[in-house]
Every structure is written in structure tokens, then in C-alpha cells.
Task: structure prediction
Amino acid sequence: MKLGNKWLAAALGSLVFSGAALGADTQLSALFMAQAAYSEQDIEQMTEAFEAANPGTDVKLEFVPYEALHDKIVLSHNAADGYDVVLFDVIWPAEFARYGLLENVSDKIDSTTKGKILEGAWSTVEYDGQYYGMPWIVDTKYLFYNEAMLKKAGIDSPPATWGELVQQAKTLKEKGVVEYPLVWSWSQSEAVICDYTTLLSAMGGEFLDDKKNPVFHSGGGLKALEYMVDSIKAGLTNPNSREYSEEDVRRTFSSGQAAFALNWTYMYSLANNPEESSVAGQVRIAPALGEADISKASAVNGSMGLGIPVNSKHKDLAWKYIQHLTSMPVQEDFARLSLPVWKASYDNPEIAKGQEELLVAAKVGLAAMYPRPTKASYQEMSAALQLAIQNALLGNQSPEDALREAAETVANLD
Amino acid sequence: MTQMSKTTVAWYLLAPMMIIIVGVAGYPLIKTVYFSFTAAHLVSPDTSDQWVGLTNFLKALGNAKFRSSIGNTVYFVVFSVSAEILLGVLVALLLNQEFHGRTLLRALVILPLALPTVVNAMMWRLIYGPDFGALNALLTQVGLLAEYRSWLGDPSSALTMVALADIWKNFPLVALITLAALQTISRDHLEAALLDGANAWQRFWHVVFPAIVAPVSVALVLRTIEAFKVFDIIYVMTRGGPASSTKTVSFHVYQEAFAYMRVGSGASYALIVVLISAALIAVYLKLLQRQGETA
Result:
């Protein structure tokens, strides 16, 4: 069987060659998201600077939609060539800590650094007193409004409470300025939870009580959902909001089809950019509103951090890369789509230039950031809430029934 | 060098393929069956040998959300596959006629098939867009629709609209297979039937249909298996929304195994799906066999 042996040898040979790594560069592989906050271009430029400063280092960047980020991180855990650096959301550290997915970097963070970064940002990477990465994106949802539309309807100043916002929206609709004054990201995804959390915090609600039992189906949590449903019923909220993500909100608002929108920081610069928006120059930003006698402002903690998966083979280099991306100079250079995590940056006139209003809103908003529950089974809790909220928004169930059902599901999660 | 028997040579030649099939399909299948009886967790070690018996299956069948996703899947399969077969056969019959530009049209009809599913899904998402979508523009301009509507945001239409996007992409496969079969029908048979005074329907039912029934049933089985597994088009177009009205079983399996990391339970969901689609295919084949014999 000479022939057979030759074939076998050839096959094995090709396997060996294709498996051999050529080139001596150290390759880091990093996972980011392709929406909101820093643009892909921003991250590529930050990375080029890192590669230039560290010869022999090659960083491979991968961008996925936010909705795929969690599953990518989890699935890559057992992969032979997993990631060295991953971007993770504020709602995941509980789960990641429980299953040991991310490196505990508590001893790499000194107390001086701790004091220089916003407290709200730290909560993004912390669970049970331990740190699982560095905060990188500090973000919350702000209220955007179209000043020109408000003026056209004879409204002199923006609303101060969610109640006032409904009144102004009614005026805008009655005067025919815009058919649907409000637009939101209420598709069945995490985006709707962020909007709901903002309203829940304004109405003084809570997700879980001290014993981790669900309480969002009463008080402020119920009021928040009723507010959402009522705004659709009254024709004030664009009904398509029920299938919108943040990018859809930006498109609708930027094309002049809404007077009010709730969205992340990144929309401020894009909605005022004439290349991206037909209402550039009319867009103003404010902290998300409070509610009379309950709160002054509202905000959801939508921050994100950078961490190192435990199976990374280049942990030191990965940490160096994270330190570069989160450093004050780099963050200040790219402060148009995402604001720095460093306290001092907020007093830097260079950062404020051209976006003074955003920084004023950020001071209030970032201080009011309300957390979504820290729960290892958060993904399932969120899915149950998303379904309940959508059922109420579509009129399949009353807000009360929908939330009660979700609370029953959540009560059974560990 | 000794002379090898034909059988030995055949086995040697088949061996590489067999190894690949066993490695790529056989091993994961056995592993999935095994996992479905355990409490296996995606990232916790030492969970894959925690035997739990039938617990996963009982929980799956008791899960109302999973049952409703079975309903969604069956609707999707029945609607999209029957439309694909109907449209595919009709288009094949047309393309089998002689007319000017037939070759060009035959090439064009394959185009949707060549499109990656994700691209197709993005394209239809744009077409269905509630504010700027082409479908709304078309229907309002010809007067069929009074005002723009949200096709994917309405639970009563979302799944049907996703199925239509799937039909557009996949009916060419049926058309292609049927067309190939149509070309094997001898002209003499059709002419003989014509001389005997058979009308168009009779010619189709008694001459054409028996000739294409076998290839069409292959297409039917292929499409049913694929439609049962539908995931990517839904992941891109609706992510299961609104209010879970487009959540199919594959989406459920994905969520259970990868988002909630319960691999054991996810495997049991997956096996239930396999059993249902196997049963459906068996019924199909039985029916078609009978049809082919009696026609």
C-alpha cells in the first residue's frame, strides 16, 4: 500500500504547515461593539497609536453588534484562540464573576487611580468588592430636544419633568409641528430596559428589594410602564418605537420626525453634524427628566468596561493595551462620541469646547445614574422584562398584568 | 504490491469523507444527546457529568414560551415551504416554455439563492422599514394602503413578513430542481396526451406531475429541514420580537444554550425540534409517495 502511505504523508504534511504560525509578532485579539460610543474609526486610531508605541505588537480588532457581545464573550471562554481584551456591559460582571470568565484585576488598580475616576464608572467593573476590568465608556441616556420645533409651537423652555414633557408633546402635536413628538428605542432588546430604567428611576421605583425580591410591578416601576403605554395611546410616541433600536431613534430624530428623544451621548455630536442630520444646529441636550415631588433628574447606568478573559495568553500585554485605551490623554483626544471616565477631564476647557451643553448635562446625568440589577441571572430577568414591556406596549396586556407576570418569572430565577 | 478487492478500495476512498462526517456531524450529535440528560453548563466545569435523567425534557415541554415558539415555527415552516413549493413549480413550468430571453431569466431566478441569508434579511428589513421602506411607499402610491405601517413591529404581521422574505430567497431552489426534472420529460409523452385530448390540467397531473414528484419531494424535505432550523433571518430581522411573536424554536435553543448558558437544557430543546421535524418529513414522504403512485 505504497500509494496510501504517500497520500497520508501528504495530508499530514499539509496539516502541519497550515497549523504553523509564521511571523514573530505578538498578536492581541480584542472584541468591541459596533454601535454607540466610540466609532470603529476612533478605536482603530487609538489602537494604531498603541501598536506604534509597542513594536512587535499586532492588535486584531473585532466589532460585533451590542446584542451579540455577551454571547461572544461567553462562547469564546472555552475556545482555543479566545480574546485577550473584551468590552463588557455594566450588567454582566455579576454573571462573569460567578462563572470566573474575567480576570480579577483588583490588585492592578491603585488607590490614586481609584480616586481620579468617576464613582459611577467604577460600579461598571465592580462586583462584590472586586474589580474585573477598567471602566472605559461612561454613559447614560440623555433627553434630546429639537429647539426649533419647540419654538414653532410657542414653547419657550424645555420641560422640567416627565409630566411637563407630555404636556409639551401634546402642544406640538395639536399645533401640527410634528406628528409623533416622542421617539424611543423600545424594541424587544436591552435598549427598552435602558429607557424603562430611566423612567423607573424618575418615578422613584426599584427593581428588587433588599432581599432581592422583584418589586418593579408596583410603585415607580408600574408608573414608568404606564407612562410609556399612555404616551403611545395618546399618539405622542411614535408607535414604531416598539421596533426601534438606538440607531433608529437617531435616524428618526435626525430627520426631523421627532421633537424629543432619549439616547446615549454619541447622538449629540451626530445629530448636530449636517452630514448626518437634517436638523443640525437645532439639537439640544439635557439630563433625562425627574418627576414632580419625586426626583430632579433620571439616568440609567449604561457604562462599559474593558476586561481580560481568564484564558488569555497575553495578560500583561492586554492590560497594557487596556491602560492605553482608558488613559486620560487618549480619552480626551476622542471625547466627541464618548466622554472620559476621568474626573479632571470635566474641568478641561478643551473637552468642553463645542459641547459645553453636553458636559453640563453629563454632570447631572452621570451623578444620577441608576443601576440595573446586579444579578447573575440578569440576562433572563431582562428577557422576561422585555417581553412584559412589549406586551403592554402592544396592548396585549395591561401594564399591571404584564409586570406581575414578569415579577413571577424573576422571583423563580436564582 | 497486493491486489486489493473492489470493496477494500471503496472503503479506502470513502474513509476520509466518513471521518469528516463522523467528526463533524456524528460526534456533536452523540454529544448533544448525552448533554440533554445532564445539567451541563456552558462555562462551569464539572457540570457535564451531572446526570439529571428526563428533567430537561419535562421542563422543556412544560415551558409555555417554548411551546408557543413551536407554534411559531410550525406556522413559519408550513407557510414558507408550501409557498416556496407552489411558486417554485409554477416558475419552473414557465421557464420550461420556449420564449425569447429564457436563458437570461433562468439565470436571474437563481440570484436570490446566491444571496447570503444575512444580506437578504438586512435588505428586507430595509424594504419593510416603517418610515422609509420601499414596501410602504409602493403600497401607498398604488392606493392599496392608506398610511405607512410597521410590518415587523406588529405581532400579527411580523412572522408572515419574515416568512415572505424567506420565500423570496428560497423558492428558486425548488424552481431549479423542478426545471431540471421537467427537462427529462419526453416530448412524445406530452404530444401523445395532447392527441388523446387531455387538457392542460390533465397533462400536468398525469404526465408532468409523476415525473417531477420525486425531485420536488427532495426539495420539500430539504426546505422543511432548513425552515425548521430558521434562525439567522430572524436574528437579523426581528430578534424574536415584537413580544416574542417571531421567536422560533432555534432562537429558543440558542438563547437557552448560549445566552443563559444551560447547555444541557438547550440540547433537550434541540432534540425535541429534531423529533418534530423528522415526524413531519415522514408524513410528507408518505403522502407524496401515495400521490406519485396514484397520479
